[in-house]
Amino acid sequence: MRFLGCLTPALLSALHLSAQPPSGDSLPSKEAVRAAVLTRISDGRIPGMAVGRISGAEVLRWTEGKRNAGKPDPVTPSTVFEIGSITKVFTGLLLADMVLRGEVALDDPVSRYLPAGTAVPELDGSVITLRHLTTHTSGLPRLPDNMQPADPDDPYADYDPTRLRAFLAGHKLRRAPGAMYEYSNLGAGLLGWALATRAGLPYGELLRRRILEPLGMRQSGIVETGAMRAQLATGHDPMGVPTPAWHLDVLAGAGALRSTLDDMLRFAGAASDTVKGPLARVMALSQREYFRVDSVTSLGLGWHRRTIRGRTTAWHNGGTGGFRSMLVVDAGSGRAGIVLANSALDSDALGRMLLDAGVPIPPLPEKRATVAVDAATLARYVGRYVLSSTFVITITARDTTGIDLQATAQPKFHLHASSPVDFFLTGVQASISFETDSAGKVTALVLHQNGANQRAPRSP
Q: β-strands 335-341, 383-388: how paired?
């Protein structure tokens, strides 16, 4: 059952973003970009944004709003954001750097660089390589099925090497490595762990030495320095409510990096100059095509690539519980754009619009009203609801004022009431309704997602 696949913890990247071709090469005016940013933050659900664009020697910055919805501190180019899955591009750069140094080869089995005794699944003699992990063709799922976080608001924090090794030892691949694209936070995190093990350094320290310091990214890192903590933005869910920060353990290479607009512009500048820029050879190697998905879409080392009318852009988006980010690079024209927001609401279109004035920016989703539901009614919904023998939705009490949803092999999500029987998730286009019989007994829930309504009877 895959219809709940998008309910996994964000860290984002969505291949459908590649489907919309650019309409031309014209850049939007500075006034148009600022107007778009102000529109995004106008109703308070996105408290603040930091946006930047590079076009040759010109570097522009737009910062608007607040670091925290409840405090006066403004967003500045030095504000620190979680950048989520853009971290995967940095992991791809580490791979490119280690290939150029002769420390690893793209087609080396990942098992070669993991701690002794770590089992890695194979299929019909095909092994998972470093190339497979960085191009999302390993055959590994988006997330491991033994990821059951103690704190659903920080879902990766307690997923450690012991749990990862246990998952790998028991997992059976559904398809051969290299067969097809299937986005995997797990695979990218495994790659980061393998590269760090090969280098004999923690992932964050390896990243600092090989990528961050050479690019002058002094306000970026996995673990916040004192200076970074002083500039941290607070994340917010799609309702505008502050959320806890995310932390990643063994899967750090999938999404643990924090950065600022100024640092990400340094990075974007280097990525858009693969000839003479800092780490030019590493950037160039990472942005080559290593796996083709279709006539438009291909994969680099950690990058997604989109080619329209002979023009190729490399991109990645990112998302955690309370942040969204988007990076787009057009090395052929020396252009790049970056969007950082302290909200879980999507800002990808704004990132694409920075390099192409013809990209439309959709309005924010309608702001949904919530209602209070009494504790006794909420308690009636607690239970297990069976969609299939292998896919169960469990409803649990969060406290006396709320309930959570958790699907098989997925983390918990908070539910918000739009009526006493109707609830919606934030950050995911899905909702549920509870059914009752004539006596008022709760008998089932109905999942509404992607235009489908799927009924799950309540387990006795």
A: unpaired
Angstrom distance (rounded) from CA 334 to CA 43: 34
Count the domains in the chain: 2
Q: Which domain holds residue 124?
A: 5-353
Of 164, 20, 10, nearest to 87 (Cα)? 10
Q: Which helix (H) or strand (E) holds 336?
A: strand 335-341
Q: What pLDDT is recorded for position 244?
A: 94
Q: Residue 339 carries which side chain, given as an amino acid letter?
A: V
Residue 134 is predicted with a pLDDT of 98
Is residue 362 in some structural domain?
no
Same domain, yes or no: 346 and 385: no
Do 295 and 208 have their domain in common?
Answer: yes
- If asked whether residues 385 and 262 sit together in one domain, one would say no
Nearest to 84 by CA among 337, 345, 321, 302: 321
Mean pLDDT over the full length of the chain: 92
For residue 411, give the CATH number of its domain. Answer: 2.40.128
- Domain contains 370: no
| Helix boundaries (H) for 171-214 | 185-199, 203-207
The tens digit of pLDDT for each residue in 159-209 reads: 999 999 999 999 999 999 999 999 999 999 999 999 999 999 999 999 999
State residue 428 phi and psi, 5-degree precision. -140, 135
CATH of the domain at 9: 3.40.710.10
What is the DSSP-derived secondary structure letter of residue 221?
B
C-alpha–C-alpha distance, residues 37 and 228, integer Å: 24
Closest CA to 316 of 121, 185, 415, 227: 185
